[in-house]
Design a protein that fits this description.
588 residues, alpha/beta, six-stranded mixed beta sheet
């Protein structure tokens, strides 16, 4: 038993080692479990915190973004089941003031600089930018620091939202103040970028400065103003927002009856020598005179097409063009008409005291021609011209209007109307022969495409006859308003004078107990004998007309006086015209 120590101590040592190993093997899973549970509990809002375990003693490490967050992390660790003690080795991130962040987009990619409050926020920002601008290289140079505003992430999201619309740009966040500048990718993206930033930033954020330069125009630098029955639309390129507001105000003032539609976009590239504001304002002034149409500017040329609202607007339009264009642009193509109206209605109304002409005509020249024709037919009767120039006249309008006007001149009173290609004539003729001749004349003179509806009666003779004095007085009154017109050097009566002679013949029929001398007179041009013969033939032509109109030939006497009885000086054109005449005189 002497050597018992020699064999027991090795056994004791072995047992001790085995016991220690068993304890160590038992404690390692506990530490692992505690560490996993601590890390999981801190991961959501305290990812900055690192965890170390010594048995069941937990050491908390890392820099917290705030004292509150640091205290929350310590509380979570202390409340974790199985932890015996918590050793606090944490600190706080350095505080940054002002709190800055910048995002720059260059040809080489994105550079993110400045500060972030924690790693989780930093990761969210990188994910956001990668999704907004996929495929673009991102250099992350953010540092962690305290002092970020509450809306930090959403302010960065707001400021970076336009970067997909910029070719180059810079967004700077200083606390809650945002500064953005850049160059738009194209005109459409410039507009979208401005719309994205038109809403106010979230929270206390504010846009301190915004400078997004327009992109160059795609192709030609163009702009247009277009008008229809409800809208005045402005579209195309403008160089800056100040011009946009001026043009919208000008369009609204020029046509307050229309809705102004703004489809303009910003773009750089105004041609040299062109004042875009002046040129586009002039274009608005021109298009405002249209019923429908378009005025467009392409580089330094202006093209115009459409219909003016009425004749007055058409004249104003031409006057503006005569003044010359402003702003450094030159006139290209012009195609200006008159607004079409439907139905195209024209009316002539004959009363005892006047002839009223109203409705639409295709041009001022046609209106002048109709007034001139009416002057030949109705003499000095007052003509009230209320005709308006418009587009949409049917082909053959001028001939049709003159035809029904001629028919109206042979009536005691009535109405002649054209409505597109339908013509109507109502009233009473002075004789049965005149009634038939009017219908025949209209059937021949109206263009083939025009229809005719006529209601022509016959003016009855009064029951009481006129004596010679009364008859002469009424003939003189009518003769003072008109005269008989002949073809030059001929005895053929012009059709303009048929209505005048119808009235004279009707008066002669109202005084059947007297005879009427029809005398022809000429001016002094030509040979005396030839003038005498011409005057005789003309007097006879008038007598034949009155016989056809119902006056007995036995009551009529035709006489030619040639140039022997002038009433004015033959040395003037006016005097000669007065001397070329037919006179009607009651004789015993």
């Amino acid at each position: 038993m002497r050597n018992w120590k020699s064999w027991i101590w090795p056994g004791v040592a072995t047992v001790a080692c085995l016991t220690a190993l068993a304890v160590w093997l038992h404690l390692d899973p506990v530490e692992t479990d505690l560490k996993d549970r601590a890390t999981s509990a801190l991961a959501t809002d305290h990812a900055w915190a690192g965890v170390a375990l010594d048995g069941r003693d937990l050491t908390l490490q890392g820099l917290a973004p705030s004292a509150e967050n640091r205290a929350e992390a310590l509380a979570i660790a202390q409340q974790l089941y199985g932890v015996r003690a918590v050793i606090d080795e944490t600190g706080l991130l350095p505080e940054q003031s002002p709190y800055l962040l910048s995002l720059e987009k260059t040809e080489n990619g994105l550079v993110l600089n400045g500060f972030a409050p924690d790693m989780a926020t930093r990761a969210r920002l990188i994910t956001l930018l990668s999704e907004t601008l996929p495929g673009i290289a991102l250099l992350d140079q953010l540092k962690l620091a305290r002092g970020a505003p509450d809306e930090f992430t959403v302010l960065v999201e707001y400021g970076s939202s336009v970067f997909s619309r910029l070719s180059t740009g810079l967004m700077e966040l200083n606390g809650t103040a945002i500064r953005i500048k850049g160059q738009a990718l194209n005109p459409a993206d410039h507009e979208i970028a401005l719309q994205l930033l038109s809403a106010s930033p979230p929270g206390d954020g504010r846009v301190e400065s915004l400078e997004i330069s327009p992109a160059p125009a795609n192709g030609d630098y163009t702009w247009s103003a277009e008008v229809d029955d409800a809208h005045l639309t402005l579209r195309g390129y403008i160089p800056d927002p100040s011009i946009r507001s001026v043009l919208i105000d000008a369009a609204t003032a020029s046509r307050p009856d229309l809705e102004v539609v703004d489809e303009m976009r910003f773009a750089s590239g105004v041609p040299d020598g062109v004042d875009w504001l002046v040129a586009s304002r002039d274009a608005i002034a021109l298009v405002s005179l249209m019923e429908d149409g378009r005025v467009s500017i392409r580089n330094d040329r202006i093209d115009i097409s459409g219909d003016s609202s009425d004749a007055e607007a058409f004249r104003a339009f031409q006057a503006r063009l005569d003044q010359g264009l402003s702003g450094g642009v030159k006139l290209g193509t012009t195609d200006i008409g008159l607004a079409r109206v439907s139905p195209f209605v024209w009316t002539a109304t004959l009363d005892p005291d006047r002839l009223l002409l109203e409705g639409f005509v295709p041009s001022e020249a046609v209106a002048d021609d109709l007034v001139g024709s009416a002057r030949l037919k109705f003499g000095s009767l007052r003509i009230d011209n209320r005709m308006t120039v418009a587009g949409g006249a049917p082909e053959g309008f001028s001939a049709a209007a003159d035809a029904v006007l001629q028919g109206l001149s042979r009536l005691d009173g009535g109405v002649a109307t054209l409505s597109d290609m339908e013509s109507t004539l109502t009233g009473n003729a002075f004789s049965a022969a005149a009634s038939g001749e009017i219908a025949d004349q209209l059937g021949t003179a109206l263009p083939e495409a025009f229809s005719l509806r006529e209601t022509i009666g016959q003016l009855p003779l009064p029951s009481e006859n006129l004596n010679g004095t009364e008859c002469q007085g009424q003939i003189d009154r009518i003769a003072s308003q008109n005269s008989v017109l002949f073809d030059t050097g001929e005895a053929r009566i012009q059709y303009h004078s048929r209505g005048f002679l119808d009235r004279i013949a009707f008066l002669a029929r109202k005084c059947p107990d007297v005879r009427l001398e029809i005398s022809g007179h000429t001016d002094a041009d030509g040979e005396t004998d030839a003038n005498l013969a011409l005057s005789e033939r003309r007097a006879e032509a008038v007598m034949d007309y009155m016989v056809d109109a119902g006056v007995a030939r036995s009551r009529l006497l035709s006489v030619g006086y040639g140039e022997s009885d002038p009433v004015a000086d033959n040395k003037t054109e006016a005097g000669k015209a007065a001397n070329r005449r037919i006179e009607f005189r009651i004789v015993e």
